[in-house]
Amino acid sequence: MSAKATAAATGRGHAVPRGADRLPWLTYRFRLLGMGLGGLCIGAVLLENGANPPTWGLLAFTALLWPHLALQVARRSASPYRAERRNLLLDSAQAGFWVAMMQFNLLPSVLLFTLVTVDKISTGIPRLWLWSLPAFASGLLCGALATGFAVRLETSMTELLFSLPVLTIHTIGVALAVSHMGQQIREKNRQLDELSRTDSLTGLHVRRHWLKLADRALRQHREEGVPMTLLLLDIDHFKVANDRHGHSQGDEVLRTVAAAIRATVGEAGEAGRYGGDEFGLVLPGTTPAQARALAESLLEAIRQAGVAALPGARLTASIGIAPARATHATVEQWIDEADVALYRAKDAGRDRIGA
């Protein structure tokens, strides 16, 4: 290979992916399994070919010692990731060598080539399996030179039986590992989705996601006639308190109000941080009278939470209530109506409900 190709294959000149230095540990199990099972398959062929002691010694190195040596080499390297990429190419070179040493015995040779190629693909490293082909061919040439290019394609029943563990156990092992990785990816995606929908400070829905829920509730009201009520809550004098006592105190106020909302609303509705010190709540299946009763409980919960969490400070909020109507063409119109009700509550002296 050219210098550029070699650099691409071994990882030199390329940024190491985050967490990639765990690669030696991840591939160690597959190398241990693959080399061990491959050794059985190769050994059956060598036995029938009447191999000499040095050949058996080389097989012992490949099947028994190489997996552990490769791990130690990668661990002690300044870049375990790049060292492991080189090890993976050496795996292919050794596989090519043993294909020739088996005199190209058809079934074991095909299995061995497939095994090392699948291992490269399963690492997820782009094009690594392509870079492994020249390494495989180099090993193949070395082995062929050692055997005088001897060829025996026929596979005996004994060789077939010793090839089956490679076909079954290794394939199942790779499938289980890929399945486990898939489960981890799905869980990570679920966590990322949860993070994208949750406000990190308050633990409530972020504005974008809450608006989607509100829009869904409005559509359900229009299509099915289910009563829906929207509440907008604004913390009284929040900006003054935030400027006077600092942002850390302001954050504590937001967390306290959010906790009161969660405790009061629970599973009865969807709550989100609408912006700054303003919160939105959608209450499915709730009439305006029921929503007003819940809002009264919420205002009292905020007062009590303020006494417990913010000694010496008075924590209150104002709430605007708007029932969903068939005349609301968009969720923005519904929110605007609640916003008007909220400002009525503020104009009337705050710490109260507007409708």
TrEMBL record:
This is diguanylate cyclase. The chain crosses the membrane at residues 28-47, 95-116, 128-153, 160-182. InterPro entries: Diguanylate_Cyclase, GGDEF_dom, MASE2, Nucleotide_cyclase, Rev_trsase/Diguanyl_cyclase. GO terms for molecular function: diguanylate cyclase activity. PROSITE patterns: GGDEF. It catalyses: 2 GTP = 3',3'-c-di-GMP + 2 diphosphate. Its EC number is 2.7.7.65. It comes from Luteimonas wenzhouensis. PANTHER family: DIGUANYLATE CYCLASE DGCM-RELATED, REGULATORY COMPONENTS OF SENSORY TRANSDUCTION SYSTEM. It comes from the Bacteria. It is an enzyme of class 2 (transferase). One of its GO terms (biological process) is negative regulation of bacterial-type flagellum-dependent cell motility.
